[in-house]
Amino acid sequence: MLFFLNLKENNNIAIHNKSHYNHTLMRLNQNEMIKIMVEIAETSLKILSKDLFKQLTS
């Protein structure tokens, strides 16, 4: 009986660790997505500002 209780406990720990791993992975993916979105926004602003500068100076 103790053996089965131990297996159940180990399974719960494994489930908890997998959940924690998935949450960490999701957080990393969110951070990467935010970095990409910021980079796109910065690039877009640079392009728009160059275009606006050309229009104002021509």
UniProtKB/TrEMBL annotation:
GO terms for molecular function: DNA binding; magnesium ion binding; type II site-specific deoxyribonuclease activity. It comes from the Bacteria. One of its GO terms (biological process) is DNA restriction-modification system. This is Uncharacterized protein.
